[in-house]
Give the backbone structure.
Amino acid sequence: MPHETPLIALLAGGLVAAFLLGALAHRFKLSPLVGYLVAGMLVGPYTPGFVADASMASELAEIGVVLLMFGVGLHFSIDDLRAVRKIAFPYALAPIAFATLLGWGLGHGVLGWTNWQGVVYGLALSVASTVVLLKALEENRLVDSERGKSAIGWLIVEDIIVILVLVLLPVLSRSLGKGEGEFDLGAVIKSLLFTLGKLAVFITVIVVVGRRLIPALLRRVAGTGSRELFTLGVLAIALGMAFGAAELFGVSIALGAFFAGMLLNESELSHKAAADSLPMRDAFSVLFFVSIGMLFNPNIVVEQPLLVLATFFIITIGKPAAAFLILKLANRSNTTAFTIAASISQIGEFSFILAGLAVGLKILPPEARDLVLAAALLSIIANPLAFKLLTNWQRREKVAQAADKSASKSVVEENDEDTGPALPQTGHTLLVGYGRVGRQLAELLRERNVPLSVIDNDPDLVQQARNDGLAATRGNAASANRMAELFPEAATHALVAIPNAFEAGEIIARLRKSNPAMIILARAHSDAESRHLISQGADGAVLAERELAYSMAEMVLAAPKQ
Ligand code: AMP
């Protein structure tokens, strides 16, 4: 029997379960998302044992959606949005229409629902989840690529359509409640125009006022020198704008957060803001997946397996196929078309909200919500597979292209569009981190013609390395796959120039394992760190602060005061 649990129990239970199962999923080479979803099922009301409060979980998950969308906005500028509009705006509508048609076919044709119910069911299947998409783009390092941005833009168009549907649904249901003959078209059109008007006012206010106000405000806060105030400022802007947008303009919370992030992107402070909101963002986005898992009632899969499967195929095959076709008809590249298709082959938060509202308004039977949830869960689990297929396809394409121009033997990165110089495969020096230390090191070594391979997890720094003429890749060096791309087994040296000694230790241990002969040097900030790095296999660790002191002392001694 489910009972009320306090918030802290939900946070602790949900996050501990998500951590354990996320780690387990990683161990089995599955996406950690699967682990989070299963963790949600375990702490949810449909499995025995600990039961957390599902409604509270979905409220917390909303914070996750806000922070995530805020983060996406930080990577987007107003110019990006204009560029994306070209690819997303007219085309995103067709797959939505097609998925709605298929959903209607299933609801009306197979289940005997009314036309209207079928259409609402189809609409619930036609909006992809931004949260799931972002995780996928992040894992595949596509967030900053052109097609990654197109996929995000595509989902923003979908978001706007869902907002309209969510606003219109109650009006429509009232009109239809009066009986088919008395359908009040006037009321529907009025509320549609009203919503569009509010959206336009919202965007104008944001662009005109927010563009000046927010960066100025943050600059002021940064000037106070208080980190705490700055982080708080960022959070206040993200949550405040998101919530304000939802309350005042009827815009979705996620869309409000996206615009808040986008405005910050216009100023030089965006980086700091992004970094400051990161840890919270990750924790809350995990809660989003946990909360979906909690809502899931596994019985539906046993009772209605065929319906679940049919719904699943509409999401994973029907809609992506329509998107692919329309993009091909519009003369877009296969890569873009495949990326968008893979990106939208899942559904999530918006579908739950829409299905929940429709069930609340008694438009859809509760069974429809269970079907949407089950198919959504399966589509989220299957989504990494879609991206895997995309990567494999790209790899084959690259090989085919390389065979065409067999002159070049270089290995080209698969996922970034602007790949820069090819990564050297043998006799090179690995440079982990292109921050303050890494950049200096690179400059000194390059002057002496040492072949370098750079890895950094900050996309801007990777771009900078490429602009500096270096071979560079983006990723966390602590990930085995990322590191393997740099051919550590054939490198002569590795320079680990990152500040976190725990991470550096793991990286060093892995490097040492793959290449016992390589010389590994690391950066440390205390004697304890330096001992740790050496125990993990480093040949030497340079204590940054001590070197600094030596240099300063040398300067004093070299130029004694007269
Ligand atoms: P700095 O402290 O200014 O030398 O910057 C350190 C750099 O290392 C930053 O640019 C980080 O993005 C990068 N970095 C830190 N940890 C990792 C990691 N595990 N993998 C790749 N790059 C990292």
Q: What stands out?
A: The CA atoms of residues 13 and 43 lie 7 Å apart.
